[in-house]
Amino acid sequence: MDFDLQWLLIGLPVAFALGWIGSRLDLRQWKRTDREAPRAYFKGLNLLLNEQPDKAIDAFIEAVQADPDTSELHFALGNLFRRRGEFERAVRVHQHLLQRADLPTADRQRAQHALAHDYTKAGLFDRAEEAFRALQGTPFDTEARLALLALHERSRDWRAAADMAAALEKTGAGSFATRIAHYQCELAQEADDRQDAAAAGQALARALEVAPHAARPLLMHAQRLSRQGSTQAALEAWAELRLRSPESFARVAHEFASWAQSQGQDCAAEQALATLYERMPGIDLLRALAVLEGTTAGASPRLLDLLRTQPSLSAALELLDTPRATWPETARQSVRDAVSRAARPLQRYRCAACGFEAQRHFWQCPGCLGWDTFPPQRVEEQ
Question: Which residue of 36, 76, 112, 148 shows the fewest CB atoms closer than 10 Å?
Fold first, then answer.
């Protein structure tokens, strides 16, 4: 078969021309798309900086539609949805990213991390836990474990929280001894509530083993021995608490004084409280001493000295409760009511981390869930 070179000479220029035209069309389309996507992206960023999140979301959606393969736009849009409280839309965005087969491993892990936070913010804790567990062994491992620890605390799953804290400690994320001690104390309290003395004792022993100098395990140990009638062992436990954490002991000094009085240990208890009172005078210790002395705090000669050194409204109320023959009853009542109203907002415990206030002391703040953030002293005594 003869081959005509004339057709070859004609076909080569034609093929070259068609290829050149096709490449120019693709390049022109790519340039147009490339211009449109950054323009929408920067428009959304500008709106976000100008505190116009609604318009910023519309701009980011436009940018994503113009360039659906850009993962950064999806991350920006998903995070913006989460900040706005539109958790369902944030979940859809991050799930769409995870469904992409061409997504790099780093971006896939980042999308999984963002999705876990979406679930947490939405209150879907079961899904959040599953999503965070999928991040173990990734660069987000420590952060995921800390998030799981917070989820266990929120759901009051103290056993799982203790296991997770121990695992975090093994990875070198820091010391979690105090937290683990609190978890064991919570388990001991739950066991006491269901009258399981053996389990309560084991949990409390574990708390003392993990954090032997922490205030809460020492206090619960002393209270437990007091309830069991082990007088000598209880006295030693109270003394240990008084030595390790005198501020926490002062908060429950009235309970100690009442127990000591019931056990015929008035003299030893009064001496211990008087010694501590000389070192750190306070209204709680004064009230406890008054129990052992068979009087009231208002009648104690120490009260006037306390008012001079610590002019708290609680101490003033104790003084006002003392009968004064020269005072008209109506005037005395009016003064007492005024002082009582003024003292009420200050007779509260305030979280040092978030400022949450409560009338009773919490080991874990109900607001920020921090441990040991409530000082033993009330606001007026700080």
Answer: 36
Helix (H) or strand (E) holding 330: helix 329-343
Q: What is the dihedral of CA 124, 125, 130, 133, to 10 degrees?
A: 140
User: Which helix (H) or strand (E) segment is 56 a member of?
Assistant: helix 53-66
| Calpha distance 239→225 (Å, rounded) | 13
Q: What φ, ψ does residue 99 adopt, rounded to 5°? A: -80, -10
The vertex-7 CA angle with 5 and 10, nearest 5°, equals 115
d(CA 360, CA 231) in angstroms, rounded, equals 28
**What mean pLDDT is reported for the chain?**
82
For the segment 118-158, what is each residue's pLDDT rounded down to a tens digit? 999 999 999 999 999 999 899 999 999 999 999 999 999 99
Range of lowest pLDDT (61-70, 130-139, 231-240, 301-310)? 61-70
| Number of helices (H), then strands (E), in the chain | 19, 2
How far, in Å, CA of 177 to CA of 182, rounded? 9
- Among 219, 302, 214, smallest CA distance to 253 is for 219
Nearest CA to 366 out of 345, 347, 374 is that of 374
- CB-CB contact of 149 with 165 (8 Å): yes
pTM: 0.75
Domain segments of the chain as ranges = 158-212, 346-382
CA distance 300 to 277: 13
Is there a contact between 224 and 253 (Cβ–Cβ < 8 Å)? no
Could you tell me which residues are beta bridge partners of residue 357? 350
Helix (H) or strand (E) holding 241: helix 231-244
d(CA 135, CA 120): 15
Q: Are 219 and 248 in contact (CB under 8 A)?
A: yes
- DSSP SS3 for 375: coil
Confidence band of 31 (pLDDT split at 50, 70, 90): very low
**Which tokens in the block code for residue 39?**
């323009």
| Distance, CA of 73 to chain centre | 31
CB atoms within 10 A of CB 40: 21
The pLDDT tens digits for 36-70 are 455 655 565 565 556 666 666 666 666 555 555 56
